[in-house]
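As described in the Methods, two query proteins were run sequentially through the folding procedure within a single session, without resetting any intermediate state between them. The first query and its resulting structure tokens are shown here.
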Amino acid sequence: MKYSGKRLISVLEGQVVSPPPVWLMRQAGRYLPEYRALRAKAGSFWTMCNDPDMATEITLQPIRRFGFDAAIIFSDILTVPFALGRTVTFEENVGPRLEPVTSAEGLERDPAIWREKLSPAYETLKKVRAALPAETTLLGFAGAPWTLATYLAAGRGGDEQKAAKLWGYRNPESFEGLLDLLGDCVAAHLIAQLGAGADAVQIFDSWASGLPAEAFARWVVAPTKRIVDKVRAAKPDAKIIGFPRAATLQGYEFYARETGVDGISVDTAAPQDWMSDFDMPIQGNLDPLLLVTGGDAMARAVDALVDSMRGRPFIFNLGHGVLQETPPEHVAALVARLRK
């Protein structure tokens, strides 16, 4: 079978590709000894994100080891709050910390300054593109406005929705102003990543779960649709994957129908029979703990997922990111089994 370009892009165009293309969220990171060695030299995660040479090397490490069908740029969703003028720090064994906000007033609104602060990502993409095998898809990404708003309202990471929810309920006009500003910056960032060499981009809405349907529509779906529209206005052929992690099944369907994304990534809880009936390219959703487990348990789960998605446009991935304790040999076994 001939595919129209890279295998992952063919899936996003609606084609069935067998075996399915594979990449893993957080495929570059702490489970790899070569990453840990570089991390020890760098001194901080944030330093690595903003050093194009280091970020390029980290992006390429899992491609060299495993030959994934896609490389995703090594960066972080909090580069967007940084571009908006917030100080971002990463505390060891704690996670990200940033200055909380209670208003969009005072946040940076100049796209030229956004681009300057986000320029390490674009330089990294250019360097990775030059070093990447021609058949390998290069992915850019950004956090979605709702997820970024949860960080900005709480001033910290983790599934901390309380401050953002209260803001949205108490002062919806002010909160939607924040979402609009975040969306403008995210759209500009994705457009620039596509211009720098990304073949496709993914929008991570990591904290989309647990929202009432009306809030999900206002805070997750509407801002994402606005971003997709802005990206497509600048890049009509852009390929975009959406990941509203742990949404309800009805939420995933509504998101897919309304946002205009080309494909949707789903979390571990999404049932395989529902996935196989989904009417757009779908990405997912092996439990990351099965990748930690390895052996027969992982092999059976991989086979079941691939069998259930046979004949459908499908990208093999996890339901969330690779865990730190994952043995690299289990990742190698996963890729080998998929390509048998």
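Immediately afterward, the second query was submitted; its sequence and tokens are:
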Amino acid sequence: MIGTFRWRFGFSLAILGALVLAGSALPLSASATAMTSAAPTVQVAQDTMLGSILTDSQGMTLYIFKKDKPGESVCEGTCAQKWPPLTAAEGMQPVAASGIPGKLGEIKRKDDTYQVTYDGMPLYRFAGDSKPGETSGQGLGGVWYVVPTAASTAAKGSM
């Protein structure tokens, strides 16, 4: 009987330990994730054709839309599906990596999300870019351009 008790007790502890470990690997709830996530970081990357351009923290190229105005995004619905805005949690100041001469900020979109801006212009990714460093959205429709740094000739006249 004592042997059975020890076995059950040991087995119970093993199950409890497995549950605790499994629980620590589960994703956090949305509210917990929002509280612990860092502000979006905007970085500088070098493109052989375009020069110094801005990317998100995963190295995905950032773009501006010529139809936007400083502080206002007009890319919604289908447009925002093809050109996902770079977003941040409300009040979370985006972080600029060293070497970025402009100012980052955020605006409130019509869908109540907050979009990161560079010198007031809303920033987007392009759904057609499948890996870091791609710039396949450059010049599309004559209205989408990569975001150059001040030293870049990437998108002269685009901002």
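The mean pLDDT is 78. We note this only descriptively and draw no conclusion about the first query from it.
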